[in-house]
């Protein structure tokens, strides 16, 4: 279980998070929605400690994440970055198998490669991309390699930062199904950032909407359409008119 | 009136503060890097790749620099020496000048241009494309995986590059001396060997090691602290080259004081 209470984060004069409160129970799929630049990525990075929050508490199973021993803490996580963040000096399969080739999960090269190819298949990529370099792939393919890398070591908590942005609708569907599968089959806890309302419906147990640095609305996915929060309504319908200003 | 006097002072003060903060940050960064030297995990593969990139692939640049410098040095010393009938010192002065000063300093500066820039650009790009963040989430310490292999490779390979550069530089002087200045080949070599001491060579190689450390640390530090986007990486690259070049020249003076004064 991940608990955020009153989390604040500013970059210089710019207040990004202004008191975020959120609970993500173990084994659930939480989807975070909100306009571009509202701090969704910063929120995920604060949980991982990649960004240090200024005040407030972030707990993982009751333990303060800033105090936790880094290695065992990070070993529980997988993260897909918004820009994929593949290592461009390594071929695709070594990106996917990165965790499996060093540290305490280290295994023989051939075995690591086999696992990598299997994970690539799960994200809809053929074995022949394994030996290409990330720069030789399209943006959507890079994203899927990033996804394969995030799930390669079968972590118990997985963060997906815009997993389907830049993918065609069919591939988006494949990825949505995969995320759902990971949560259901592996019992993983997932936090997913997305702008794609069909993805939201496909993968969310719960939804949280971030706006103006706070969680504007949160609730079960089933309640989304009947909720009368004007911010949420505007976001779902994609309307230019409403409380969320179109110019930011 | 007061602001007229105070404003420049404040500007100077701010610059000094910035400089001191920077020195402090780099020192902490360098200390942290060195502290990982004996703590596993180690990444021998990364080290070997960097040895190739930094050491071996710098050979042509360092070699050519040394060759032309050795040749020019021979011409200068010959014409300078002619003023007090001391043309005969050409071989020994070329050798001493090369191994003590010009080999390490010019080699270090050339490597600063080549390697500090390349390191800062690569790590800076990794930083702005979140690859450094990705490394961390994959339980890999960037200091161990990226910085240490580069620093180690540069510190170990620069002394060798300097030694090779010294030889090529002396050879450059020999070529000019024997073909243009009328030296006898055997005499030239004899003169070089007779006057050169082991400490001349070793002190130059120690300088090389220090310069290698400086180049890699400055490249990594500026890369890791790169600003956003292509402009940020560009600035990081420039800063890495400029700061490592200045540090090489400054530390060269200090090392020369330590090694050879009194
Ligand atoms: N490292 C950083 N330094 C300065 N500003 C940042 C940094 N990371 C994010 N920001 C700012 O924080 C805000 C939120 O960014 P982000 O979390 O990426 O938004 P999004 O909700 O689209 O994921 C943006 O205005 C961004 O410019
Ligand atoms: Mg984002």
Q: Explain this structure to me?
A:
The complex is a heterodimer of chains A (248) and B (262). Chain A contains eight helices and ten strands. In chain A, strands 6-7-8-3-9-10 form a six-stranded mixed sheet. A four-stranded antiparallel sheet of chain A has the order 2-1-4-5, covered by helices on one side. The mean pLDDT of chain A is 93. Chain A starts with a strand and ends in an 11-residue tail after the last helix. The longest helix of chain A has 18 residues. In chain A, helix 4 crosses helix 5. Chain A is globular. Chain A is an alpha/beta fold and 248 residues long. With 262 residues, chain B is an all-alpha fold. Chain B has one domain. The longest helix of chain B has 39 residues. The model of chain B has no long low-confidence stretch (mean pLDDT 95). At the A-B interface, helix 2 and strand 6 of A face helix 5 of B.
In summary, what is this structure?
The complex is a heterodimer of chains A (248) and B (262). Chain A has 248 residues and is α/β, with parallel strands linked by helices. Chain A has helices spanning 40-48, 70-75, 92-96, 109-122, 139-151, 169-186, 197-203, 230-237, and strands at residues 2-11, 14-24, 29-33, 55-60, 63-64, 77-80, 157-161, 189-193, 206-211, 214-220.
Q: How would you describe this structure in keywords?
A:
heterodimer, A: 248 residues, alpha/beta, 6-stranded mixed beta sheet, 4-stranded antiparallel beta sheet, 32% helix, globular, B: 262 residues, mainly alpha, 9 helices, 85% helix, 0% strand, binds adenosine-5'-diphosphate, binds magnesium ion
- What is the share of helical residues of chain B? over 70%
Low-confidence stretches of chain A: none
Strand elements of chain A, count: 10
Report strand % of chain A.
15-25%
- Mean pLDDT of chain B comes to 95
Which sheet architecture does the biggest sheet of chain B show? none
Radius of gyration of chain B, whole Å: 22 Å
Sheet/helix structural class of chain B: mainly alpha
Whole-Å distance between the termini of chain B? 50 Å
Number of domains of chain B: 1
Spell out the helices and strands of chain A N to C. EEEHEEHEHHHEHEHEEH
Give the CA-based shape of chain B.
Answer: globular
The averaged pLDDT of chain A comes out at: 93
Helix content class of chain A: 25-40%
Shape verdict of chain A: globular
Supply the helix-strand structural class of chain A. Answer: alpha/beta
Tally of alpha and pi helices of chain A: 8
Count of helices of chain B?
A: 9
Low-confidence stretches of chain B: none
Strand content of chain B: under 5%
Q: Which small-molecule species are bound to the chains here?
A: adenosine-5'-diphosphate, magnesium ion
């Amino acid at each position: 279980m991940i608990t955020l209470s009153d989390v604040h984060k500013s970059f210089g004069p710019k207040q990004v998070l202004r008191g975020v409160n959120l609970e993500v129970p173990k084994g659930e799929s939480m989807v975070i929605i909100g306009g571009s630049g509202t701090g969704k990525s910063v929120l995920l990075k604060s949980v991982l400690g990649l960004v240090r929050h200024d005040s407030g508490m972030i707990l993982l199973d009751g333990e303060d994440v800033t105090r936790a021993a880094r290695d065992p803490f990070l070993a529980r996580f997988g993260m897909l970055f918004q820009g994929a963040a593949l290592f461009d000096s390594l071929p695709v399969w070594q990106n996917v198998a990165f965790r499996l080739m060093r540290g305490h999960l280290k295994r023989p090269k051939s075995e690591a490669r086999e696992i990598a190819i299997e994970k690539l298949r799960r994200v809809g990529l053929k074995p022949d991309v394994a030996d290409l370099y990330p720069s030789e792939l399209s943006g959507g393919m890079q994203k899927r390699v990033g996804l394969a890398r995030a799930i390669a070591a079968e972590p118990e908590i997985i963060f997906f930062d815009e997993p389907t942005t830049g993918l065609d609708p069919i591939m988006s569907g494949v990825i949505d199904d995969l995320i759902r599968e990971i949560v259901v089959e592996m019992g993983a806890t997932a936090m997913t950032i997305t702008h794609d309302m069909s993805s939201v419906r496909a993968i969310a147990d719960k939804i949280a909407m971030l706006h103006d640095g706070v969680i504007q609305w949160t609730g079960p996915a089933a309640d989304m359409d009947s909720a009368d929060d004007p911010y949420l309504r505007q976001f779902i319908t994609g309307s230019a008119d409403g409380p969320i200003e179109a110019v930011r | 009136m007061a602001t007229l006097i105070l404003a420049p002072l404040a500007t100077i003060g701010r610059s000094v503060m910035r400089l001191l903060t920077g020195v402090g940050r780099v020192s902490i960064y360098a200390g942290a890097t060195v502290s990982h030297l004996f703590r596993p995990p180690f990444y021998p593969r990364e080290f070997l790749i960097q040895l190739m990139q930094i050491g071996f692939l710098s050979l042509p640049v360092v070699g050519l620099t040394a060759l032309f410098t050795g040749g020019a040095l021979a011409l200068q010393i010959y014409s300078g020496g002619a003023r007090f009938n001391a043309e005969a010192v050409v071989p020994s002065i070329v050798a001493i000048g090369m191994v003590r000063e010009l080999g390490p300093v010019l080699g270090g500066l050339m490597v600063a241009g080549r390697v500090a820039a390349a390191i800062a650009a690569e790590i800076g790009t990794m930083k702005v494309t979140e690859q450094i963040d990705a490394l961390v989430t994959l339980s890999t310490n960037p200091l161990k995986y990226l910085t240490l292999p580069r620093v180690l490779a540069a510190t170990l390979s620069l002394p060798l590059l300097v030694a090779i550069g010294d030889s090529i530089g002396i050879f450059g002087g020999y070529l000019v001396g024997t073909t243009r200045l009328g030296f006898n080949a055997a005499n030239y070599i004899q003169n070089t060997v007779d006057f050169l001491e082991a400490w001349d060579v070793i002190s130059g190689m120690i300088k090389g090691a220090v310069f290698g450390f400086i180049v890699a640390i400055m490249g990594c530090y500026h890369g890791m602290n790169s600003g956003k986007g292509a402009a940020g990486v560009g600035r990081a690259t420039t800063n890495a080259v400029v700061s490592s070049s200045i540090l090489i020249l400054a530390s060269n003076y200090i090392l020369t004081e330590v090694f050879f004064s009194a």
